[in-house]
């Protein structure tokens, strides 16, 4: 055995932590690049925390995934916050009301911190916030159930600042099929086509995350503007209907659209997803009991829920940052560098994120990982937010016609 090998074996035995996965750190090259970077995440569910718990975005928290101090640490330019009323528990009218409550919660939170953040409704709004060294905050709707099949409601959400809508959530709407529900319409029905056309006219981005494959292809036929998948990953690497097949990625690229890679470990690694599904029963029973016990105390419910979720996650396979990088690289290979971006799903996936992507402050490590995989500086700038800015401008242009 060589001396070098002996030293390596001794090193692993004596100092194992040195040989475990370590934070990538940010290289001087990336630090320089980040000075000119537009960094945008297209999907976070922090809205629920703001509304239900009075979550203060201006403070750094030791839980959840997104707040302004951690966004500043990451060098964020803009963040889309999702309005996602529970499509199973609420009636259509209740969904509209809840959507408005969530929207108001975000707007009021931003107004409380005018020195830190700015509501934005366009690419110009994003650039204005950036010039003032503030975080641009934008809004998206997750699930067309929120408009109750009514174009008038859609238009009013647009007037209030919503700039994309995911056509479905986990269940079907009255006009479109979801990827995780039994098909009802075989894709989009006539009302669904009208809704997509109206979104084009308004300048609201059509989001096809969550929709069935048939709904996706029907939407491509109708839309005159690029589509986005605001938080989806690659089915070739993790076979789940929430992810996009290679054929879908190519079609999305032809449309000029984007797939914004989702960080949820269950959509990155099938082994993780399957093991979580196999073991979740007892844990979900505990969570159901907590909801009854702390029905009138949202903060305590959130605190106790995190304890249960952490205990469950500790029993699941580890998903490294490299798995997420694999999805980015696959999407780039299949769709092209101009058609991939960031769609974290932060604060919507409990604690089920890859190691090294525990919250929004870790996005520079993701950028460094992509750089280490061989992406050029212009490529990194496109992934970080340049591609989404391009799509937003094209959606605005189509609406202007």
List the helices and strands and how they pair.
Elements: H1 3-14, H2 28-34, E1 40-44, H3 47-53, H4 68-74, E2 78-83, H5 92-111, E3 117-119, H6 123-131, E4 135-142, H7 151-159, E5 162-166, H8 190-202, E6 205-207, H9 213-222, E7 227-229, H10 246-255, E8 258-261, H11 265-268, H12 270-293, H13 298-313, H14 321-335, E9 340-342, H15 363-372, H16 377-400
Parallel strand pairs: 1-2, 2-4, 3-4, 4-5, 5-6, 6-7, 7-8, 8-9
Summed up:
The chain has 401 residues and is an alpha/beta fold. 49% of the residues lie in helices and 10% in strands.
Q: Could you explain how this protein is built, in words?
A:
The protein is an alpha/beta fold and 401 residues long. The chain has two domains: 34-268 and 319-400, Metal-dependent hydrolases (TIM Barrel); 270-318. It is built from 16 helices and nine strands. The chain has helices spanning 3-14, 28-34, 47-53, 68-74, 92-111, 123-131, 151-159, 190-202, 213-222, 246-255, 265-268, 270-293, 298-313, 321-335, 363-372, 377-400; strands at residues 40-44, 78-83, 117-119, 135-142, 162-166, 205-207, 227-229, 258-261, 340-342.
Question: What attributes characterize this protein structure?
Answer:
401 residues, alpha/beta, TIM Barrel, 2 domains, 9-stranded parallel sheet, 9 strands, 10% strand
State the CATH class of the largest domain. Alpha Beta
Work out the number of β strands: 9
Tell me the radius of gyration: 21 Å
Low-confidence runs of at least 5 consecutive residues: 1-23
Helical content stands at: 40-55%
Largest sheet, strands/sense/barrel: 9 strands, parallel
H/E series: HHEHHEHEHEHEHEHEHEHHHHEHH
Which quaternary structure do these chains form? single chain
DSSP strand content: 5-15%
Q: What is the overall shape?
A: globular
Mean pLDDT: 94
CATH superfamily of the largest domain: Metal-dependent hydrolases
Q: Could you say what the CATH architecture of the largest domain is? A: Alpha-Beta Barrel
How many individual domains? 2
CATH topology of the largest domain: the name is TIM Barrel
- The span between the termini is 73 Å
What is the overall number of helices? 16
Structural class: alpha/beta
């Amino acid at each position: 055995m060589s001396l070098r090998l002996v030293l390596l074996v001794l090193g692993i035995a004596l100092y194992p932590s040195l040989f475990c996965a370590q934070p990538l750190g940010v290289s001087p090259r990336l630090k320089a690049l980040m000075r000119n970077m537009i960094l945008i995440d297209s999907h976070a569910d922090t809205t629920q925390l703001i509304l239900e718990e009075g979550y203060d975005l201006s403070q750094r928290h030791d839980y959840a995934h997104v707040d302004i101090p951690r966004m500043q640490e990451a060098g964020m330019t803009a963040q889309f916050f999702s309005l996602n009323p529970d499509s199973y528990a609420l009636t259509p009218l209740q969904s509209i009301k809840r959507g408005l409550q969530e929207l108001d919660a975000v707007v009021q939170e931003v107004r409380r911190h005018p020195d830190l953040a700015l509501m934005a409704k366009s690419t110009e709004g994003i650039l204005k916030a950036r010039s003032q060294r503030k975080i641009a905050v934008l809004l998206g709707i997750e699930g067309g159930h929120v408009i109750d099949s009514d174009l008038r409601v859609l238009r009013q959400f647009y007037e209030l600042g919503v700039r994309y809508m995911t056509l479905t959530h986990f269940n079907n709407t009255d006009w479109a099929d979801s990827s995780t529900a039994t098909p009802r319409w075989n894709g989009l029905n006539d009302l669904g086509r009208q809704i997509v056309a109206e979104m084009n006219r308004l300048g609201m981005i059509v989001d096809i995350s969550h929709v069935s494959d048939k709904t996706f292809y029907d939407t491509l036929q109708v839309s005159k503007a690029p589509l986005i998948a605001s938080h989806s990953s690659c089915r070739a690497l993790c076979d789940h209907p929430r992810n996009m097949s290679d054929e879908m990625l190519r079609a999305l690229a032809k449309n000029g659209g984007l797939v914004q890679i989702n960080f949820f470990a269950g959509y990155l690694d099938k082994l993780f997803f399957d093991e979580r599904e196999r073991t979740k029963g007892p844990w979900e029973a505990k969570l159901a009991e907590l909801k009854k016990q702390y029905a009138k105390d949202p903060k305590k419910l959130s605190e106790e829920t995190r304890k249960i979720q952490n205990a469950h996650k500790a029993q699941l396979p580890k998903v490294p940052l490299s798995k997420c990088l694999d999805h980015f690289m696959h999407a780039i290979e299949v769709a092209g560098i101009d058609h991939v971006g960031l769609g974290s799903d932060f604060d919507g996936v409990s604690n089920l994120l890859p190691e090294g992507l525990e919250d929004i402050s870790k996005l520079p490590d993701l950028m460094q990982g992509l750089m280490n995989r061989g992406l050029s500086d212009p490529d990194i700038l496109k992934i970080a937010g340049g591609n989404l800015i391009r799509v937003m401008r094209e959606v605005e242009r189509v609406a202007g016609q």
